[in-house]
Amino acid sequence: MNILERDPSDPQKQKKEGISPPLKLVLELGPLLVFFFANARGEWLAQKFPALAELGGPIFVATGLFMAATALALIASWLLTRTLPIMPLVSGVVVLIFGALTLYLQDDVFIKMKPTIVNTLFGGVLLGGLFFGKSLLGYVFDSAFSLDAEGWRKLTFRWGLFFLFLALVNEVVWRNFSTDAWVTFKVWGIMPITLLFTFSQMPLIMRHSLEEKTKEEQASK
Predict the structure, then answer these.
(1) Model confidence pLDDT, tens digit, residues 42-99
(2) How far is Cα of residue 96 from the mean position of the Cα atoms in its chain?
(3) Residue-range domain boundaries for the chain
(4) Phi (first) and psi of residue 68, to 5 degrees
(5) Burial track 58-69 (b if 16+ CB lie within 10 A, e otherwise)
(6) In sequence order, which ranges of the chain are alpha helices (DSSP H)?
(7) In this structure, are residues 207 and 163 in contact, taking their beta carbons and an 8 Å threshold?
């Protein structure tokens, strides 16, 4: 049995690992929304649930609930697809490790560094894969796009650089602004930036889409 999601070229991937885009979005964004809400209402949550007060201030309550929500999202993915998506899994492992350090040492620096570590890791893996001739972005987007080899190479390179950019931005924000500002930016800033970057790649995707090429070939006959 495959625990991790299948290779994009595996014909069984689409049949066995399908999950609706809205549900996938909920599973990926849900933990972040929990983190934001818990940080904003940490004192209220601690009053309602005294056990949470043992974790510390709002950022520590948020960290604990973020860890729980992340674990639940991975469990839900497993129950729905019987596989674990690679990138959320890597991110989840880092959340649990750095979250545990944050709570144990009562130092929020660890959870603030998590996006830097994850994005640097993703960027390094994507660019490193290209060095060895592998366009690894197909693991993420193959269910949404069907591109030729050149298209996957270009898109993988751009996303690799974008992940390194996100890592740099996270470092700038958490080191120069308040914890509340960092949490707000993490939830409401990173997503719009990522969406804008994704939409900006649509011209490249259209140029290298195998479906578009097939339509053009059929139209020319």
Answers:
(1) 888 988 898 888 898 899 999 999 999 999 999 998 888 877 777 788 888 999 999 9
(2) 14
(3) 10-107, 111-211
(4) -65, -45
(5) bbbbbbbbbbeb
(6) 12-16, 21-40, 42-48, 50-53, 58-81, 86-105, 109-131, 138-141, 149-176, 179-188, 190-200, 202-207, 210-220
(7) no
